[in-house]
Amino acid sequence: MDVEIKRDYYLKQMVSRRDNGLIKIVTGIRRCGKSYLLRRLFKNYLLVEGVEEDHIIEMAFDLYDNIDFRDPKVFYPWAKKQIKDKAKYYFLLDEVQMLGEFVSVLNGLADRKNCDVYVSSSNAKFLSKDIATEFGGRGDEIHMYPLSFSEFMTIYPGNRYDGWNEYITYGGIPLVVLADTEEQKMALLDSLLKETYIRDIVTRNKIRNVGEMEALLDILSSAIGALTNPNKLQKTFKSVNQSRITATTITKYIEYLEDAFLIEEAKRYDIKGKSYIGTPMKYYFMDMGLRNARINFRQAEVTHSMENVIYNELRMRGYRVDVGNLVVTEQGKDGKLVKKQLEVDFICNKGSRKYYVQSAYLMGTEEKLKQEIRPFLKIPDFFKKIVITMDVPRPFYSEEGILMMNLYDFLLNPDSLEL
Predict the structure, then answer these.
(1) pLDDT of residue 299
(2) What was the pLDDT predicted at 364?
(3) What pTM did the predictor assign?
(4) Which residues contact 252 (CB under 8 A, 6 or more apart)?
(5) How far, CA to CA in Å, does 90 sit from each of 20, 98, 117?
(6) Residue 261: which H helix or E strand, with range?
């Protein structure tokens, strides 16, 4: 049965940018649904809106059948031949980073008044500063993630509690979500990781020591949400693997993993000093299923998984997300003043909106509650402060003015931070 997964959040972004004169660039990890969004959902929208099918020009550069079209001297003349009148033409170009001289080609198409260009790319370098400059301000990015929990639940047949367990185990890659059995899901994730993501990274970056890069991926997979940096990782390599890998090489490997959208870095931010702290930082996986496949589904720490899912959800909603650091001076047991560092899991910013968010799997006791809200009470501003947990029945405000919210209320309501 052909199940249609609604990706309305992204489709609305595509529709709102229609005919704006810019090159619409859908970025995201491979297999997250970019092609489906571009060449099915958005194409269907155009057809319903009355666009003639021969005025929608498609090309998937990752398919073998189209390998010759990766040559700009083949593709560009072909593309121009498709334009037969003055009506609007819509170009839907998939995995366009495989097209040679793609910046010049896309600029050439977008320069035509009757051409509206939409492309996808699974490489973060596609929008590097140099390329963005070459686009001359014409690039308009729509970043796509694997299925959010709310998208996942639109096709999951069970209740949200079973759905949550499935989601944090096998993630939100549509191909995996639609698989019938747990065995199929695990096999797909393992195959995708090895044959698609890692192979892409190795080929694209000409990595010689693949084992080193994979060992780094293992370490990051086992320590999601932990503060780290290349120097600390180098020491881990030396003690565990007796490796001579340098911090510089580790930094490069991390960049490769980020460029492929496998992981994302969250920087630390000094709340009182209002500045970024160089290191350490945290790394989160863009899909929990891929992370779990890397560690053979061994570690099932719900606390870290929940933190990773909350991070991804905040990023999906368009927030810039940092890790908060708060230095406070308190009286120690001996009566002397001591400096302590407190952590706020996430500082979320979008325009003038700002939120502080703590992820706490279970509160359980009054002591645990005090521990979680302690950093909030030390923050010298009045932006909204939120604790997301599993064990509050419904959202409520504490006496300190802190919003306590159930994880499901947060994930299933796109406006939950506004409660």
Answers:
(1) 67
(2) 74
(3) 0.93
(4) 205
(5) 12, 20, 6
(6) none
Residue 224's CB is within 10 A of a number of other CB atoms, namely 21
Residue percentage of the chain with pLDDT more than 90: 77
Residue 145 in 3-state DSSP?
coil
With 0-12 CB in 10 A as exposed, 13-18 as middle and 19+ as buried, what is 48?
A: exposed
CA 97/CA 111 separation, integer angstroms: 19
Secondary structure string (H, E, C) spanning 357-417: EEEECCCCCHHHHHHHHHHHHHCCCCCEEEEEECCCCCCEECCCCCEEEEHHHHHHCCCHH
Helices (H), 117-265: 129-134, 149-153, 160-170, 174-177, 182-191, 199-205, 210-222, 230-241, 247-259
d(CA 4, CA 281): 38
Residue 346 tokens read as 């996430």
Q: If you average pLDDT over residues 149-177, what whole number do you get?
A: 96
Dist. CA 135–CA 119, nearest whole Å: 13
Distance from C-alpha of 207 to C-alpha of 203, rounded to nearest angstrom: 7
- Give the chain's mean pLDDT: 92
Residue 44 falls in which region: left (phi positive, over 0), alpha (psi -120 to 50) or beta: alpha
Instruction: Judge whether 354 and 322 are in contact, CB under 8 Å.
Output: no
Per-residue pLDDT tens for 372-409?
A: 899 999 998 999 999 999 988 899 999 999 999 999 99
- Two tokens at 378? 């030390």
Instruction: Tell me the mean pLDDT in the region 1-25.
Output: 91
Distance CA 312, CA 137 (A): 27
Per-residue pLDDT at 325: 93
Could you please report the per-residue DSSP string of 30-91?
TTSSHHHIIIIIHHHHHHHTT--GGGEEEEETTSGGGGGGGSHHHHHHHHHHH--SSS-EEE
**pLDDT over 70 (residue 1):** no
